[in-house]
Amino acid sequence: MEKAVAVGKELWERVQRDDVFGIAAQLAYFFLLSLFPLLIVLIAVLPYLPFTQEDIFSIVRDFAPEESMNLIENSISELSRRNGTLLSFGIIATLWSASNGINAIVRAFNRAYDVPESRSFLIARGVAILLTISMIFVFVVALLLPVFGKQIGLFFSNVLGLSDEFLTLWNMLRWLASPMIIFIIFSGLYWFAPNKKLTKVSVLPGSIFATVGWIAASYAFSYYVSNFGNYSATYGSIGAIIILMIWFYMSAIIIMIGGEINAMMSKRRTGQAA
């Protein structure tokens, strides 16, 4: 018990020292700036993928507050009508804009680990762009699992001669794709973003915390907005944007704390090794 209290106290001191709540506000701003370029990329590649806009909505809708989800859906619908000119200024420029949020996370994690950004500007931004592309790829896989999961399960069942119990278990597991994909995305961020060599195992504590915390916070905030919070009455037509910013702010805090947990554990292991 005393050890848990000491760990909690140390984590809180790190949160205050690294100004997690202030940096989270900055991250929320960059997340908002990154959202629509990211939507442009998704809409641009959608015609080449075997699913629809509604498949994308179905995953995001599980976590996003309703009013923010309406804003996102309307934006995607409007962007899709201008599909012919979406990438007129180049896919690289779009990805550059979409990677603003990831680039801000890179700087925040470097601060958590107390390491300088020794990589050049282009290399650091290149890492952010690659992480953005990876997130899009993982998101696409998350969409494919529910859509084609049944066919994949039937294929393995027939080839390997597995029982009906396997199909039942498979159908249950494939709908856990969203939490698993969120865990993979967080793990990738915590592993590759900091300018520090890390192992896959060392980022697990923060990844688990961020996955559970983000899903729980998203559900709780969505429930609160749907049942108690009337932001439209206070902010009028920009109420949906305010809700989206609050959701991004909460998400950024959780992501930052996950990074602080990993940095704290890494420091403890280094101290013990010394």
UniProtKB/TrEMBL annotation:
How would you describe this protein's topology in the membrane? Multi-pass membrane protein
- GO CC terms: plasma membrane
Checking InterPro entries in the record gives: Virul_fac_BrkB
Q: Which residues cross the membrane?
A: 20-49, 86-106, 127-149, 169-192, 204-225, 237-259
Q: Tell me which UniProt keywords the record has, alphabetically.
A: Cell membrane, Membrane, Transmembrane, Transmembrane helix
Where in the cell does this protein reside? Answer: Cell membrane
Could you name the domain of life of the organism this protein comes from? Bacteria
Specify one Pfam family: Virul_fac_BrkB
Please give the name of this protein: YihY/virulence factor BrkB family protein
Source species of the chain: Cytobacillus horneckiae
Q: What is the lineage of its organism?
A: Bacteria, Bacillati, Bacillota, Bacilli, Bacillales
